[in-house]
Amino acid sequence: MILDIQPRGPAAWLWMNRPEARNALSDELIAALETALEVLEKDAAVRVLVLAGRGPAFCAGGDLAKMEKAAKMTRARSRREASRFAKLLYRMHAYPKPIVARVHGPAFAGGMGLVAACDLVAAAEEAEFALPETRLGLVPAMISPYLVRALGAAQARRYMLTGERLPAALAARIGFVHECVAAAELDVTVDKLCDRLALAGPEALARAKKLLLRVEGAALTLELAAETAAVLADARATPEAREGIRSFLERRKPSWQ
Fold it and tell me: 255 in a domain, yes or no?
């Protein structure tokens, strides 16, 4: 099974399962991730997704054997091949449920892009990130929008151009990683993040993610102010918000917890 889905509390853990290839992004793995996202979005019992990797690496990036074949394709076909991964990244970034990256080893190239497309990142102290594409004559193209958002423009410029490795501890200091812990504590840390996320209303989380997409990098204008006011007005009219406010006033847990 190239993608092993494990129910765990309020979360579904998606284990990339190509350990012999360091979870390189084959067509089959990308397709399995696409299918899992589609199915799990409709499962109300799943509140959070966790992306993880079996074996010694989180994800080594693109499959170089596949890239060598792509170099011989027509330009139109090569673009179609590349766009599939680009669509997966956007699907993850815009997904209505939170996605947590659990990184225990190398997350290189497209693997680092997968991490950047997630909402929260927990990494073991031994984990490493890198964008070695330019050293191979390539460009970290499809992952670049997510890297700039997750790393910040200045740090993205450094690591995209130099290809140098970014240790997990340093990644945490510059804000790319939210939690950097000992390997033995990684799963417990991820579980805690999932439990915290599951305290929120599922509709509120989806609305918050959609709002983040809208305001990231947006100019501060009166039009944007009006849009954000409308988001709150719409949210507080929902049954979920009414239940949340009522449960707070009644000193009890809301129905979704």
Answer: no
| Nearest-angstrom CA–CA distance, 178 and 191 | 14
pLDDT at residue 67 in the model: 60
**Residues 138, 235 share a domain:** no
Q: The pTM is what?
A: 0.93
Active site residue 133: yes
Catalytic residue (choose from 133, 227, 240, 243): 133
Separation CA 98–CA 190 (nearest Å): 12
Residue 256 resides in a domain: no
Q: How far is CA 90 from each of CA 19, 40, 50, 83, rounded to the nearest angstrom?
A: 25, 16, 16, 10
Tell me whether strands 179-181 and 120-124 are parallel, antiparallel or unpaired.
Answer: parallel
Q: Is the predicted pLDDT of residue 68 greater than 60, yes or no?
A: no
Q: Whole domain around residue 234: which residue ranges?
A: 202-249
User: Which tens digit of pLDDT belongs to each residue from 223-235?
Assistant: 999 999 999 999 9
pLDDT of 62 reads 81
Tally of domains in the chain: 2
pLDDT digits (tens, 9 = 90+) for 171-199: 999 999 999 999 999 999 999 999 999 99
Rg of the chain's alpha carbons, rounded to an integer?
19
Rounded Cα distance between 85 and 91, Å, is 10
For residues 218 and 161, state if they share a domain. Answer: no
Same domain? For 112 and 175 the reply is yes
The residue written with tokens 């027509």 in the block is 74
Residue 238 DSSP SS3: coil
Q: What angle do CA 160, 162, 167 make, to 5 degrees?
A: 80
Bridge partners (DSSP) listed for residue 124: 181
Q: Is residue 99 located within the same domain as residue 169?
A: yes
157 plus 227 within the same structural domain: no
Helix (H) or strand (E) holding 130: strand 128-130
